[in-house]
Amino acid sequence: GGFALMENIQRFQEAAKAYGLPEDEVFQTVDLFEARNIPSVTKCIYALGRITQKHPEYSGPSLGPKMSEEHKREFTQEQLDAGKHIVNTAQMGYAGGANQSGINIGQSRHM
After folding, report:
1. Are 43 and 26 in contact (CB under 8 A)?
2. For the chain, does the N or the C end have fewer beta carbons within 10 angstroms?
3. How would you classify residue 35: left for phi > 0, otherwise alpha for psi between -120 and 50, otherwise beta?
4. Are the C-beta atoms of residues 68 and 50 closer than 8 Å to each other?
5. Residue 54 in contact with residue 20, Cβ under 8 Å?
6. Helix axes 38-51, 2-19, angle to 10 degrees
7. In whole angstroms, what is the distance from residue 93 CA to residue 87 CA?
8. What is the CB neighbour count within 10 angstroms for residue 47?
9. Are 47 and 35 in contact (CB under 8 A)?
10. Which contacts of 52-61 are long-range, i.e. CB under 8 A and separated by 24 or more positions?
11. What percent of the chain has pLDDT over 70?
């Protein structure tokens, strides 16, 4: 009955946490049992698919994007100094010619 189903859901949740899934990515039992929050259940399944990438013993299919890996870069002091003189136009308010022409605030659209 219903009690056995809830126990199975709880076992899945415990196993997912033991496998390395963060607590905040595990759905609540009622999210699935009473279909209260199916997107949360889906997020959990995708998160579990992502975590399998950290387990070399798992050889099944992957789900979701590949997890990022650390990619350290080494810069010389000369390279760091050269970057200080570059003007970052995005931080200076330049929007590449974008303007507000054609925007009609408060007017109806004429068809």
Report:
1. no
2. C
3. left
4. no
5. yes
6. 40
7. 12
8. 19
9. no
10. 54/20, 55/19, 55/20
11. 78
